[in-house]
Amino acid sequence: MSLLVESSKAPPRMPSYLEAGHTVRSWLFTLDHKRIGILYMAAITVFFSIAASAAALMRIELLTPAGDVVTSETYNRLFTMHGVLMVWFFLIPSIPSVLGNFIIPLMIGARDVAFPRLNLLSWYLFMAGGILATYSIVAGGVDTGWTFYTPYSSTYSNGHVMAMAAGVFIAGFSSIATGLNFIVTIHKLRAPGLTWTRLPLFLWSMYATSIILVLATPVLAITLVLMAMERLWGVGIFDPKLGGDPLLFQHLFWFYSHPAVYIMILPGMGVVSETLAAFARKPVFGYRVVAASSMAIAILGFLVWGHHMFVSSQSVYAGVVFSLLSFLVAVPSAIKVFSWTATLYRGHITFETPMLYALGFIGLFTVGGLTGIFLASLAVDVHVHDTYFVIAHFHYIMVGGMVMAYMGGLHYWWPKISGRLYHEWTARIAALITFIGFNLTFFPQFVLGYLGMPRRYHMYPEQFQTLNVLSTAGASILAVGYALPLFYLGWSFFFGRRAGPNPWGATGLEWKTASPAPEHNFETTPVVTTGAYAYDAEGNP
Amino acid sequence: MNRPGIAAFFSSGASSVAPRVDALFWSLVLASAVVVAVLVLLNLTFLIRYRRGSPARRGPLEVSTWKFEATWIGLTTVGFLGFFFWGARVYLDMERVPADAYSINVVGRQWMWDIRHPNGRREFDELHVPLGRDVRLLLSSEDVIHSFFAPEFRVKQDAVPGKTVSVWFKPTREGVYPLYCTQYCGTKHSQMTGRIVVMSPDAYAAWLTCGPTPRIAERGRELFTKYSCSGCHDQPSQIHAPPLLNVYGSMVPLQDGTFVYAGDEYLRDSILLPTKQVVAGYQPIMPSFQGVVSESDLLDLIAYLKSLPTAASAAPQPSPAAP
Ligand SMILES: [Cu+2]
Ligand SMILES: [Cu+2]
């Protein structure tokens, strides 16, 4: 994307956003989208670490069939804490709130998001929710699973369900505010000449994500309120003993949570499109279809929630319809995978770390997507539903997909964030370790699930041990892959080589301004004259 | 029973539906493997051939991209629809309970499976079934949602409190098979496991009669008095309530002019949700026993109502234990 800078005489350099104030106050009360992105980054890194430690403990417990490391009560609290924190306090805010916040205004040539104060408020809501959730863990934990199924959660569970649900409820409003902010920003603040068909694909995917955030999250809020009413005041909504219907909860919950699955993957797809274009140095194949597929996913994603309920005793015919729609929602995802592959054709490819993550994403997402087809097939789902097969499937999407994309995006935009480069080979090796560790952790779980090992089992029959040991071994490798970036990125933030405005030779407005980005992003408002990814025949921007 | 390790991966299962599920599963595996192989091959080729600085020819594409897009959108859609129909076909057969299936009651409770055979024989966490019969389980739950999962039979169904759900299978191999609860149900969820014993019909018939068989209908009669159902329903009574003879298996006229078939489901609803279907000519004065009678008392009450002289022997009755 080329741009015309109105004044070519170099004006006095604006301070970077990092230099604009060094006090704690200047961070906690900042209205700068970039600083807010960094605040999110710090917060979700903490939540990720807590949730990952819970997973580590579970994997250690599962080394042996007997329940010998922790009690069943503790184990159930561990997987609940892992699920709740990973979903609502890491994955959902990961790419949208960290990278989206940081990069969206830069990508569209704006000074900030549309509502900077609302943006800061989102972060505070997020923190309030996170602190409540953490409180519920410290106070004794919750054992309902992240799905909060009734009537267990509303009547039978004796954990701190209300504090945890309140945390999720509040964090939900942070999601809504962020989604709203992004929608308005993308609509109203695009630079002159940046038409919809010139938008980088990351923006299309963030736009689709924001629509889901705004439309789906309120349903979660309502569901949690209903659950609270039953739990606190005995209003019969879900518990049949009080005249309620337990399946109603599942319908409401998945009406939010299936679209939420796409909140947790669409942004990753956007990052992959950006990185592939940048390191293949050519436009993404079938730009329009890829952009449209993001929107198709956002819309169709609202119509498939019942595929989580094939064995719940919902109507058989509803099951058939939900199965059909679930197959259809997989088509746009398949389109993306094919288009990414075709993007490599006739490119000028190099293999920097973000590219390795993007390629890893394509592989793992493909496996996750294909096993999703297994689960959409009714007869097969009956067998593998609520077994480790499902666990493996969604970790291939959420961790193999979204976390890989988040790491890839973080490395890709790191020069813009920190102004510096990390040590390339260390980063490449970390990406490779992550990929290997991931597969070793989760591939055996497909087999476990097919053989019948149910999920959320503290103890398990002996014949499942070998595969569980493999999985735990993989998890320890994965842990190394996740820990390494903490060190080398941390180091590079202070001591890394200066990056310059465009270290990758990429297109996109964010690469036209200084690194780290200046406080107000651009000296003068850029004007866009070409579509996204306008590389010349030699692959130069 | 549990063939160890990988061998089990290729086992053909132990129910009539298992081979059909497996055929679909392995076809999916095969199709996925082909897709993955093609993608890996293409990606590797492109990555190597078009690495920066390689001599490969570049330049713009000669063919318009929409042709590729249309092709792969078409191909994936057709492939997906094929698997959809296949999966739905098998599923519909799994869900359609054969009319003459042999019914066994299964109640899930934190954290055990409480199982009653038609003659009243009761067992916990162990389910004996006759080989080669269509076995229908009437699943219900006394507290939270549980899920009945028999991996070797490729069968799974949630047991939801407040209703009875049927699931059926036809065991095709004698043996002992695992049974798991797959819906998280609290602290000891992972210990809510059991065994399914498939026996020859003769052995099953012998097993049925050898154990203790409480006369559930008799217990049901006691409960009928205890919950003061008799106060209204035993004739003569001061209160205008229908006599419960000849109800089970009949078509009951309702207040709104429609008729309903009085099977197990109807009896359960009449006790738990009496206002759902009000018998023609009566006032809806019967109190709901939702949350008052436990799941196991409910089964005994239903057994008692079924033991009363019934309308017509034409009604589909559960056939006797041994075929
Ligand atoms: Cu879903
Ligand atoms: Cu359970």
Indicate the low-confidence ranges of chain B by residue numbers. Answer: 311-323
Number of strands of chain A: 2
CA-atom Rg of chain A in angstroms = 23 Å
Mean pLDDT of chain B: 86
Helix and strand element order of chain A: HHHHHHHHHHHHHHEHHE
Q: Tell me the overall shape of chain B.
A: elongated
**Uncertain residue segments of chain A:** 1-10
How many H/I helical runs of chain B?
A: 7
The total number of structural domains of chain B is 2
Helix coverage percent of chain B: 25-40%
CATH superfamily of chain A: Cytochrome c oxidase-like, subunit I domain
Instruction: Tell me the greatest interface.
Output: A-B, 91 and 85 residues
- Silhouette of chain A: globular
Largest β-sheet summary of chain A: 2 strands, antiparallel
Properties at a glance:
heterodimer; A: about 550 residues; mainly alpha; Cytochrome C Oxidase, Chain A; two-stranded antiparallel sheet; 16 helices; 2 strands; about 65% helix; about 0% strand; globular; B: about 325 residues; alpha+beta; Immunoglobulin-like; Cytochrome Bc1 Complex, Chain D, domain 2; 2 domains; five-stranded mixed sheet; 12 strands; about 20% strand; disordered C terminus; binds copper (II) ion
Structural notes for this entry:
- The complex is a heterodimer of chains A (541) and B (323).
- Chain A is mainly α.
- Chain A has helices at 24-28, 33-61, 72-108, 116-138, 152-156, 161-188, 201-233, 246-263, 266-280, 287-300, 316-344, 353-376, 378-384, 388-418, 424-451, 465-495; strands spanning 420-421, 497-498.
- Chain A has a two-stranded antiparallel sheet with strand order 1-2.
- Chain B is an alpha+beta fold and 323 residues long.
- Chain B folds into two domains: 1-59 and 97-214, Immunoglobulin-like (Sandwich); 217-307, Cytochrome Bc1 Complex, Chain D, domain 2.
- Chain B has helices at 18-49, 65-95, 201-210, 216-226, 230-233, 264-272, 295-307; strands at 102-109, 112-116, 122-124, 126-130, 135-141, 146-150, 155-159, 165-169, 175-181, 194-199, 251-253, 259-261.
- At the A-B interface, helix 3, helix 5, helix 11, helix 12 and helix 13 of A face helix 1, helix 2, strand 7 and strand 9 of B.
- The structure holds copper (II) ion (2 copies).
- The site of one copper (II) ion (CU) has 7 residues of chain B, from loops.
